[in-house]
Amino acid sequence: MTDVAESKIWIIAEQRQRELAEVSLEIIGKAIDLAKQTRWKVAAVLMGHQLNTLSRQILSYGVHEVLVADEPMLVNYCNQAYVKVLENAVKRFQPEVLLMGATALGSDLAARLAARLRIGLSAHCIDFELTEKGDLFGIIPWLGGNSLCRISCPHTRPQMATVIPGVFQVPKMNGIQGRIIPLETHIEQKDLSYHVLETKHVKGPQSELEMAEVVVAGGWGIGDNDGWKLIENLADRLNGAVGATRPAVDESWAKEGQMIGTSGLTVRPKLYIGIALSGHPHHLVGVKEPELVVGINIDPNAPIFESCDIGLVGDYREIVQSMIKCIDVQYGGGDE
Amino acid sequence: MRVIVCIKPVPDPKYWNRLRFEAKTKTLVREGVPSIINTLDKNALEEALRLREKVDGEVIVLSLAPLDSISVLREALAMGADRGILISDKIFAGSDTLATAYILSTAMTKLGAYDIILCGDQTLDSGTAQVSTQIAELLDIPNLMHITAIEFTDEAQFLVKSQIEHGYMLVEIRAPMVLSVANQINEPRYTTLRNILEAEQKNIEVWSSEELNLPERLVGLAGSSTQMGDFIFPPKKKKAEILQGSPEEQAAELTDRLHRLGFY
Predict the structure, then answer these.
(1) Are strands A179-182 and B157-164 parallel, antiparallel or unpaired?
(2) Contact A44, A7 (CB under 8 A)
(3) Do A120 and B248 make contact, defined as CB atoms within 8 angstroms?
(4) Region B222-240 average pLDDT
């Protein structure tokens, strides 16, 4: 094939069943912005089967090239097959930067490729800096979000990073200017090291939590099931829904479907109350455009107090119990 | 069947407020912070024990950690693992995920034949969730992440459920393989006093870089392409208004404001 990719910043356009992951568009926006530093061009790499419509859709977001590996054996994501296609493309066209979403697919594909090429990988970035010379620095949350760390892979190329979904804006569509470059795949049956029998999307209608105007979220500091009941009672009084951080889900106080943030839901409440949680960006990134953020934590230095409007410092049990009492008094009675 | 479970000691989140960061060496000072088995690694171990109950075999726990982490391996033995190996060497300090995966995969190769390598999906501390995939790549075997169910169909064939965003995949996969598990997969068992006493009798092997024949340039900081840079302490964007008074007074003030704003 004679087509040569010129772009030096590549992003993985992640799709499953021909549905594009929103984070891929978010990264395109950021990549186009970064590319101004070096006057590089941006390409999206799309792998799967029957991708004509999707390729054109991605072009309309302003990328210079879409590199497409379209092949029946790529219909389902299988990392050893996908990494083979990507490895060949990277070796052939030598991009400087390669970004993808920190999703189930992106994190796995990035880790495989980094190990195969023996190169570095900056995980879960929330921002980037690109120098004029083309050195990429990823910014990651560190130590429970108390600080940020600049992370880089200075000696290996491409400079690879995964990006937390929801931190960048999806760019506006601005008409198609770029072009589509087909990639050779060379996939054989033996590259499909596992067999996907079924892919199920259980997305369905939005959950109560995603639509709630009031979200009360709890974290690790809730401590036990009784504590969790308490914040459920508070949410109930406020006609709200209960959300959780990853540690609260790991402790089984909350269900997976209640997790807000990077690997969970995005909520858009008017009022968000974060209780006994640190305020780590992995969680807070899932709380979009709240009007009022309240933080309740026993540690006056908890990062949540840098992300909230009103802070309450103290034992959450005492505070929440008192709040419930106050609300009940206002309604002139105890439990309904 | 031989199952290897990777376990990582992590600072107990209950004491994270005691963690200090030393800017000069870019290391975490964990003094006085007890270590626990990373929560999801317990789920991985539980699943290994359940597989052994079904088809017989051996469960080996493997940990790359400082020497003082032996208690964490002891706990894994008390849960029921047959054998514990601690991989520990000063030159391993500062390993990024790829160097970590390299060290672990070398140890696995030294162990000889294995069927399944089980890991937790991610760790509580660094949480990059990259190591299991990188082990699989370095061993050139298949892997899947976010596993919520493992069903054994014949001697090497498995049916697994792997979570993805807003759904799941049902996948047929053959051993040898690496699987990293999500917490929904099971409820890890508790250890009894008897288990703990029995575990005291079990031997824990310690392997250094010599046993693994690892060149210094491929491990630790030297073997890590990913570099931690400087730290940014972002300017406090927005300082919260901190309510004053007793818990009751703060609660009363907040509910009053929420009421006036029409939230209830």
Answers:
(1) unpaired
(2) no
(3) no
(4) 75
d(CA B59, CA B87): 17
Residue A123: which of B128, B234, B240 has the nearest Cβ? B128
Partner-chain contact A198 B169, CB within 8 Å = yes
What are the helix and strand counts (H, E) for chain A? 10, 18
Handedness of CA B105, B111, B114, B119 (dihedral sign): negative
* A147, A239, A319 ranked by CB distance to B231: nearest: A147
Distance from C-alpha of B8 to C-alpha of B53, rounded to nearest angstrom: 24
- Fill in the DSSP letter of residue A318: H
Residue A2's pLDDT is what? 57
**144-163 in chain B: CB under 8 A from chain A:** 144-146, 159, 162-163
| Interface subset of B 37-76, CB within 8 angstroms of A | 39-40
Q: Do B242 and A300 lie within an 8 Å CB cutoff?
A: yes
- Identity at A115, one-letter amino acid code: A
B15 interface with A at CB cutoff 8 Å: no
User: Which two three-digit tokens encode residue B66?
Assistant: 């400082």
Which one-letter DSSP state was computed for residue B1? -
- Each residue of A36-60: b (16+ CB within 10 Å) or e? eebebbbbbbbbbeebeebbebbbe
Residues B247, A203: C-beta atoms closer than 8 Å? no
The residue of chain A with its CA nearest to that of B38 is A250
- In 3D space, the residue among A69, A96, A81 whose CA is nearest the CA of residue A161 turns out to be A96
Kindly state the helix (H) or strand (E) to which residue A82 belongs, with its residue range. helix A79-93
Nearest C-alpha of chain B: how many angstroms from A2?
31
Minimum mean pLDDT range among A251-255, A328-332, B34-38, B93-97: A328-332
ipTM value, please give it. 0.86
Distances in Å between the Cα of A169 and the Cα atoms of A22, A119, A128, A152, A314 are: 10, 28, 14, 23, 36
Q: Does A131 touch chain B (CB under 8 A)?
A: no
Q: Does residue A102 sit in helix, strand or coil?
A: coil
Chain length of chain A: 336
Lowest mean pLDDT among A63-72, A201-210, B33-42, B126-135: A201-210
Residue A105 with chain B: CB contacts under 8 Å = 164
Whether residue B252 and residue A148 make contact (CB cut-off 8 A), yes or no, is no
Give Cα separations from B156 to A83, B5, B70 (angstroms). 24, 18, 32
Express each pLDDT in A111-122 by its tens digit: 999 999 999 999
Residues of chain B numbered 76-105 and touching chain A (CB < 8 Å): 96-98, 101
Q: How many CB atoms lie within 10 A of CB A102?
A: 23
Q: Which of A130-144, A210-224, B151-165 has the highest mean pLDDT?
A: A210-224
| Contact assessment for residue A138 and residue A150, using Cβ atoms and an 8 Å cutoff | yes
Residue A44 near residue A28, CB atoms below 8 Å: yes
pLDDT, position A158: 97
